[in-house]
Specification:
It contains 5 helices and no strands. The chain is mainly α. Helix 1 packs across helix 3, helix 3 packs across helix 4 and helix 4 runs antiparallel to helix 5. The radius of gyration is 17 Å and the shape is flat.
C-alpha cells in the first residue's frame, strides 16, 4: 500500500511534478505539444484539487476544504450548463465538463500558490 501512497503524497505536495512528468512523457510518445499540454493539465488538476483542499484545511484550521472545492465545482457546472442551454438550446455535457476541469486547473493553480505562500510565511513567522 505504501508503494501507491508515496507517489500520490509527493504529487499532492508538489503538483508541478506530475505536470512535467505527464507533459514530457506525452511529448515523447505523441510528439504533439498542444495535446501533451492539455493532457498534463487534466492529470495535474486532480492533484491540485487535493493540494488546495489540504492547504485550505491547514491555513484555516478546518476540515471543509475538499467540500468547499466540490461545492464551487458544482456551482461552476451549473453556471456553464445554464449558459450553454441559453446560448445553444442544449447542453453538451462533455464540453461542459472539459471546460470546468480546465477552469479548475487555472483556479486551483492560483489558489495553490496563494495558500502555499500564506502557509510558508505563517510557518516562517512561527519559528
Amino acid at each position: 500500500m505504501d508503494v501507491l501512497l508515496t507517489p500520490v503524497f509527493i504529487f499532492t505536495v508538489l503538483p508541478i511534478i506530475p505536470f512535467f512528468l505527464v507533459y514530457l512523457i506525452s511529448i515523447f510518445l505523441k510528439k504533439e505539444k498542444r495535446a501533451s499540454l492539455l493532457l498534463a493539465m487534466d492529470v495535474t488538476t486532480f492533484f491540485l484539487i487535493l493540494s488546495v483542499s489540504i492547504l485550505f484545511n491547514n491555513v484555516f484550521h478546518s476540515q471543509f476544504g475538499f467540500y468547499l472545492i466540490l461545492l464551487i465545482l458544482l456551482i461552476v457546472v451549473g453556471l456553464i450548463g445554464g449558459a450553454q442551454n441559453r446560448l445553444k438550446g442544449k447542453v453538451d455535457v462533455g464540453r461542459m465538463l472539459r471546460a470546468v476541469w480546465r477552469l479548475t486547473f487555472a483556479g486551483a493553480g492560483i489558489v495553490y500558490i496563494i495558500l502555499f505562500l500564506i502557509s510558508f510565511f505563517t510557518y516562517i513567522s512561527a519559528i
